[in-house]
Structures are given as structure tokens and as C-alpha cells.
Amino acid sequence: MARFDKEEAGEVLALHQLVADWCYRLDIHNCTGVEALCTEDVEYLVGGVPHRGRDAVAAFYAARNERVAKHQRDGVRTQRHSVSNFRVEFTGKDSASIAFLLVNYSAEGPAPALNLVGPTIIADSRFECRRNADGEWMISLFDSKPTFIGNDPFLNAAVVPK
């Protein structure tokens, strides 16, 4: 069983907030600004494809948003990410590993999405995190391995390993 002292417990909350901020930028801010939560040298794996560095993460989501504008009803995609089974392991004074279960619901068009049958994808996910010079936790690695994959051709084209 993990045991944290008071200082570590505060850091666990900060790391949990980092994951929540990541989901918030994906869902509420249409995937913009995700790169600001990452280290300069981040390795960001989506569907097994690596995107290295903040600029690559920004480019990945910009391309995604172009596809949404072109191929989704009304140029909009509604999505929500939910996180559970959150587990933190400190790997050093300024480094941590976070494992979590990521459940994504998404649909074409604006909210509310009707007739949703279930999650679009459920994935075992992890962040490797480092504290920056300002003391803020940043994502240095994102990796996610699908456990269950729904029937959403738009999402599947980007996240299902080829």
C-alpha cells in the first residue's frame, strides 16, 4: 500500500490536478494548449505514434482540429475524458509516474450527443512527470494503450495502433 507523508500528499494532489487540467484542455478547450502542460522534450505517444516536443504535440492537435472542422457535423466534435484508478509513484525528488484508466466519450457534432451507447475508448494510460524550475509538474511522457475500443471511425483513425 502506498503511504505518503504530508508533503508528498500535497504533490499527489498537484499531479492529480495536472491530469485534470490535461482533460480540461482536451474537452473544454478543444485540444488547444495541451502542449503548455508538457516539458520541451515531451514524448507524446498516440496510437503508438510518437510526437516529440511541445511543437509536435501542438501540431498533432492542430491537425486533429482541422480534421474535425472538415469531417465532423457542424465542424464540431464533443468529447469528455474521465479518469479513474489514479496511482502515483514518485521516482525521484522531482519526478513521478502516474498510471490511470482513461475513459473517453466522444461524438460528432455539438453537445448534447444523442444515442451514445458507451465509451468511445477505454485505455490504460500513464504520464511520466518532471517538476520544472518553477516547481510546476509537467508531462514528460504520455502513453496510452487501448483496452476497449468502441465504434467511432474518427477517433479510431487516430488512436488505434496500426
Sum this structure up briefly.
By secondary structure, the protein is of the alpha+beta class.
Topology:
Layout: H1 6-27, E1 38-46, E2 49-52, H2 54-71, E3 77-92, E4 95-108, E5 121-131, E6 137-149, H3 153-159
Parallel strand pairs: 1-6
Antiparallel strand pairs: 1-2, 3-4, 4-5, 5-6
SSE string, helix = H, strand = E?
HEEHEEEEH
**What is the first-to-last residue Cα distance?**
37 Å
**Shape descriptor:** globular
- Rg over C-alpha atoms, rounded to the nearest angstrom: 16 Å
Low-confidence stretches: none
Descriptive notes:
By secondary structure, the chain is α+β, with helices and mostly antiparallel strands. It has 3 helices and 6 strands. It has helices at residues 6-27, 54-71, 153-159, and strands at 38-46, 49-52, 77-92, 95-108, 121-131, 137-149. Strands 2-1-6-5-4-3 form a 6-stranded mixed β-sheet, with helices on one face. Strand 5 and strand 6 (137-149) form a beta hairpin. The longest helix is centred in the N-terminal third of the chain and has 22 residues, at 6-27. The mean pLDDT is 94.
